[in-house]
């Protein structure tokens, strides 16, 4: 279970962390700086103790696995400057920005113009000299995670789950089946059969989550 505490510097108006625990991956320590919720939608600003780009990528991977929400890169900041080590803006994959109304109106189109978004920034921690930063969260919590969790679609329905990225282990399994002589159709059938044996009555939901 993730460790979630209120920020002693920002003093957010939050007492119950259950909604955050529903979506935040475990094995991380979070400091909540701001939080506003409306039913299942919420906006929050978090601080964590990550200090480099590898941490950001790993956290995002874990978040997408735990929450079942896939985020796409909206904007990167290759030259983050002297204050930041890493910065990226992300949007929900169900905001595909279709190029035409014809594409938008396709029944199979996954676009819902979802407004959900996220930003991850890792502040630079100065160790070789006295820092001029007035950020009280430094040096212990240099990572800032800004979440606008306002999806305009269900998250756990088959229609939504089928658009998630294929997991690396599933790719490896399918490739191994190809090596054994399977074609794409029979490899998929084998994978679904294994899921049926493993998950039983939950198979219909699991098989749509790629």
Automatic annotation (TrEMBL):
It comes from the Eukaryota. PANTHER family: PROTEIN B, PUTATIVE-RELATED (PTHR35385:SF2), PROTEIN B, PUTATIVE-RELATED-RELATED (PTHR35385). This is FAR1 domain-containing protein. The lineage of its organism: Eukaryota, Metazoa, Ecdysozoa, Arthropoda, Chelicerata.
């Amino acid at each position: 279970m993730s460790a979630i505490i209120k920020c002693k510097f920002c003093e957010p108006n939050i007492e119950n962390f259950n909604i955050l625990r529903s979506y935040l991956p475990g094995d991380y320590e979070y400091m909540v700086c701001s939080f506003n919720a409306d039913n299942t939608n919420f906006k929050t600003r978090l601080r964590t103790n990550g200090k480099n780009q590898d941490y950001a990528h790993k956290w995002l991977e874990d978040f997408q696995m735990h929450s079942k929400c896939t985020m796409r890169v909206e904007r990167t900041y290759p030259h983050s400057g002297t204050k930041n080590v890493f910065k990226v803006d992300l949007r929900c994959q169900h905001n595909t920005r279709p190029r035409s109304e014809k594409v938008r109106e396709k029944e199979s189109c996954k676009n819902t113009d979802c407004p959900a978004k996220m930003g991850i920034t890792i502040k630079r921690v100065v160790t070789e000299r006295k820092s001029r930063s007035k950020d009280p969260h430094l040096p212990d919590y240099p990572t800032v995670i800004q979440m606008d969790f306002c999806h305009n679609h269900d998250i756990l329905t088959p229609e939504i789950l089928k658009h998630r990225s294929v997991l690396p282990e599933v790719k490896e399994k399918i490739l191994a089946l190809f090596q054994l002589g399977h074609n794409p159709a029979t490899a998929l059938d084998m994978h679904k059969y294994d899921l049926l044996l493993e998950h039983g009555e939950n198979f219909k939901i699991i098989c749509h989550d790629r």
